[in-house]
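The pair is quoted verbatim as follows:
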Amino acid sequence: MGRELCIRGTFAHTQQLGEFEIFHDHLLITNSFGVTTHFEAATSAQSQAQLAAQSSVTLPSGHFILPNFVDLHLHAPQFLYQGNGLHLPLMQWLDEYAFKAEERLDADPALARKVYTRLAHRLIQHGTGTVLFFGTIKEETNLILAQVMQNAGLRAFVGKLSMDMSSRPSYMESSTQTSLQAARSFVKKCRDLTSTLPQHERLVEPVLTPRFVPTCSDELLLGLGKLSAAESLKIQSHFAEAMDQVEFVRRQRGAEDIDVFDRASSGLLTSRTIQAHCTFLDLPSFQHVRSCRTAIAHCPLSNSYFSAEPFRLREALDEGVKVGLGTDIAGGYSLDIMNSMRHAVSVSRMRQGSKDIITGTAGDGSKSLAIDWKESLYLATKGGATALGLTTGAFAVGSPFDAQEIGLFDSNGSGVGAIDIFDAEELGSAQLSVTMEMVEKWWCLGDTRNRVRTWVQGAKLDSEISPLL
């Protein structure tokens, strides 16, 4: 798959929420399986022995390596119309845009392959190495998605939609049993795609995906819960996303989303479950989610368009809920997790500002509802990895090397891309180093021009887009 790596330079990660660490002049080595076998100061005795025994690559000054991003919520077929239709309420948007796009790809395998191939390359360009995908109803289309992501070298969790009800009659499965049978078939075929590969090269995994309560009967949810338990399968869906959707469920089921998923021993709220959005969950609901060890995919940009309320991120984190970030393409228009991080911070700051105005408690010393850039970076890396049960997201011996190289300034001390550096003339570029302030500047201003390389499981990914696509 990849080759053994021996890299000397600056590394950075957020292994704990709010704690950002920079490791200057460190040595990281991986084995042929893409797993980190050594990570410590380059000047240590063991590092020096390693450097004497093998060739190494030294990062240029102004570059650092960061864990790559995890996107916890992305609708792959909706990449077809990314950036359109955001003027509509959620339920109407689904009928007029989402379902139509998904039907179109299900009817055209060549188009599906073209869209998914372009999507894979875009993800690599944006430093996203792991994605939890919503797919479509049709098995073949989801197998195309899985194969494209495996070929691209991305770590992908692929969900074939399960829908035995729909507001669009042409886009649903014919019965509950048909839906359950299709889910079982997809799980087997998706696993078969990589069954002949060595374990460390099996990057694609099937995920059970009841779209959301309005499209799934209680019988279907119960059956999927049993399948998840029997096959140890991850589950993904949507919770309490938008006001029109919440009211729809109340009329349809006489209950809240969380109650529908949790009742009748459905087995859908587990440590293997990731629920997107959750903007209308209250504190007791967060406590229940935590007790189930279920994770939440926070999609702040999408919520700004479709939800009447912002997600209570600080409260979820304080309750110990596992949270990561998602783009929610195409409910969110940006495929770049960096934009998800920025919006997560800005929305949280608006929440704190509103609280200050309403309660008149500004500056009273109480804990802020706002998060900072370091916390958002945790959510985009280690938080998302933890939600998926992965050991990636930070640099440690025994963890797969999933990472991205970021360039802040060049050999002349000039900033890369939108980043400007003004200290080079006084200090000289050789004395410039990667600092917390520089990383924060990249967090605010950085883009694809700063991204030099991306790796998954120790293998360098190709971010070039074929002109034929």
About this structure: DSSP finds 15 helices and 16 strands in the chain.
